[in-house]
Amino acid sequence: GALNPQLIQQVRTQLAPLGGIQKVTLIGREGSGARTVHTFVVKFEKGKLKAILATNAEGFLTDFLLQPYP
């Protein structure tokens, strides 16, 4: 689905219990050209998540995923 204001608000509400973002660290980058996947650890006040972002050749965001981080 498209990134829209309702989706952004839903994600914001779901992440609120983790508190503010403290640090974002790039831990991996794979691919090139047509698709590049960037993996980050996002440290919040009360936990961590892994953020996976994919971009196309023009640098536009094509995928975004948040997962628990051990």
Explain this structure:
The protein has 70 residues and is α+β, with helices and mostly antiparallel strands. Helix content is 16%, strand content 57%. The protein contains 1 helix and 4 strands. The protein has one helix at 5-15, and strands at 21-32, 35-44, 47-56, 61-68. It has a 4-stranded antiparallel β-sheet with strand order 1-2-3-4, with no helix packed on it. The longest helix has 11 residues, at 5-15. It is flat.
Primary descriptors:
70 residues, 57% strand, four-stranded antiparallel β-sheet, 4 strands
Percent in helix: 10-25%
Q: What general form does the structure show? A: flat
Adjacency order of strands in the biggest sheet: 1-2-3-4
Fraction in beta strands: over 45%
Topology (SSEs and partners):
Layout: H1 5-15, E1 21-32, E2 35-44, E3 47-56, E4 61-68
Antiparallel strand pairs: 1-2, 2-3, 3-4
Short overview:
This protein is 16% helix and 57% strand. The chain is of the alpha+beta class and 70 residues long. The termini are far apart.
